[in-house]
């Protein structure tokens, strides 16, 4: 009886504790929310606000030194407090505008600031705690592994680009009776058909080109039957381990419908090429694939990105195939899958590599399509509305769409100080020092926090450069898509091209040149006022001059991107040190290693004291573990210990073997993934400033060359010839 009574007592105590928890937890949450609101809204005098700001910034810098997950969350909390405190003060104490000009510029800036704050807060939600999913092992019995159709859609890419992707896809380590590779040729080219037939892979064409890539993939779905589909863009070369790394999660989670891996590029994009920052500064996409997608995975909101992904056939067919309603069919497809209750996943391990866009105009065209498509989804299938999504998923999708609305806000930030310098508009109705006391901690703590979170995949201030380059071009299609989602069409991004001569892209650079010129004028006017206008507010002038100087740095760096660098290789070389051996015509062997490789050739480093003459025919052996491939080659370049070799008459089988030993190696891409120099804001500002100076020099040089060219053209015109005669 005593035992029973004790059990009853414990059960009663447990019930009482659960009831207490049920009551206490909401009370604690309410108390925390009240304290949070108090910290944000409590008014402070100037000196008190400065002390508060210094304490918060000092705490953030101290937490940055450890950068543990909990430290990062604490930094996020400090940043949110500083930013919300600034915005509360901004909305309640600085908007007493007196003239229509003040209202026009002032409210425009406030709206841009509200947009930036919203994106900042949602960004913290996405990136503060990435899931960091690891591969899940497959069963040892290969008989239970599923069948996979590999789709390689193509429209206007060259056969050489397609060949490499096909060779690598056919070489994926997967049971051969369960792997089927298909080229989906919307270009309907006979040479592609012949290649596919000779190499033994599928070739699918459709009767029309409706709905572009989405329609191409959907038609292929009707012609195939495997359990899963792996999709690669024509220029994305998969590694041998692609399916073994990713497929395990599908077998563990029956509700998993899509698994995405990063888009990794072995060639520089226009920013990296024109600014000479390849592999030294993370490119525009690395933040998304290195961190944002990993954060989305925590909320079960991973986006399908059109390539380098595995999709389960049954859920895809259940939603009607790849989405065709928008030009960003990939992200929209993932949204539809999530709405149906299916899971999506992300593995932050590069398992494919591809070609980046070559020219700035091509890069901008690609981003215009993305921006238009995301605006179309926002307009027609808004993630905040409709059934099937959890709150975290809604916010992740919403932030991805809001990101592409930065065009107008970015232009506002780039010109805002000119309102005061050129028109004397008072966009802040508050004392200058109070503006500094509230705005500076908001900016600095957010910068330090984002640098800590993003430092491996995005350097400080580069986001402003990217947005400044694209802002003018994406603003119009985004706004038009909000008015009429059917406006615009799908445009294919060209890859694998050449730029025979360096040139300055005046057409693309025109908006940045205008912004740069306006800021230079504003800087000059401000300096003159500072020196000669006795009635001007020195502190206000200095604030606007510093802001203008920063805008000059950013806009001049944007101008530098428009100076297209010569690119004579249609097939970029991949820099990698792989074990190799040369066999000379006399039978002598030389153990060496590669410096770089491409489909057509390889560069090697020779041992000390060894030389091979130009024109000599050799056999190149490449190794991967115990596997060896031997390829005939000719020496086309010989300089000290460096050789340049071109392969000679490789058969399709040899080309396939070459791809397996080079492009299909996951370790080649893993070395460069997130292992660059970690961001430090001051060093990044110095780098962007140096590039800005270079941009001004390039613009001056291009302007002089243009004037000289026009002068020569005028001097050779018929009228001038007759006048001189």
Structural account:
This protein has about 725 residues and is α+β, with helices and mostly antiparallel strands. The protein folds into three domains: about 45-130 and about 405-490 and about 505-565, no CATH class; about 140-355, Spore Coat Polysaccharide Biosynthesis Protein SpsA, Chain A; about 575-670, Thrombin, subunit H (Beta Barrel), CATH 2.40.10. The protein contains 25 helices and 19 strands. The protein has a seven-stranded mixed beta sheet, with helices on both faces. Strands 14-15-16-19-18-17 form a six-stranded antiparallel beta barrel. A three-stranded mixed beta sheet has the order 5-10-7. A hairpin with a 5-residue loop joins strand 14 and strand 15 (about 590-595). Helix 4 (about 100-125) packs across helix 16 (about 405-415), helix 14 (about 360-380) packs across helix 15 (about 390-405) and helix 21 (about 540-560) crosses helix 24 (about 680-715).
Keywords for this entry:
six-stranded antiparallel beta barrel; transmembrane; globular; Thrombin, subunit H; cellulose synthase (UDP-forming) activity; 13% strand; Spore Coat Polysaccharide Biosynthesis Protein SpsA, Chain A; seven-stranded mixed sheet; Cellulose synthase catalytic subunit [UDP-forming]; 725 residues; alpha+beta; 55% helix; 19 strands
How do the helices and strands line up, and which of them pair or pack?
Elements: H1 2-41, H2 46-66, H3 69-93, H4 100-127, E1 148-154, H5 159-170, E2 179-185, H6 190-199, E3 202-204, H7 212-223, E4 228-231, E5 237-238, H8 242-246, H9 248-252, E6 256-260, E7 264-265, H10 270-275, H11 286-298, E8 309-312, H12 313-318, H13 329-339, E9 343-346, E10 352-354, H14 360-380, H15 391-403, H16 407-415, H17 418-423, H18 432-454, H19 462-483, E11 503-504, H20 506-532, H21 538-561, E12 563-564, E13 574-575, E14 579-583, E15 589-597, E16 601-605, E17 617-624, E18 627-639, E19 642-647, H22 652-661, H23 666-670, H24 681-715, H25 718-724
Helix pairs in contact: 1-3, 2-3, 2-18, 3-4, 3-18, 4-11, 4-15, 4-16, 5-22, 14-15, 14-19, 16-19, 19-21, 20-21, 21-24
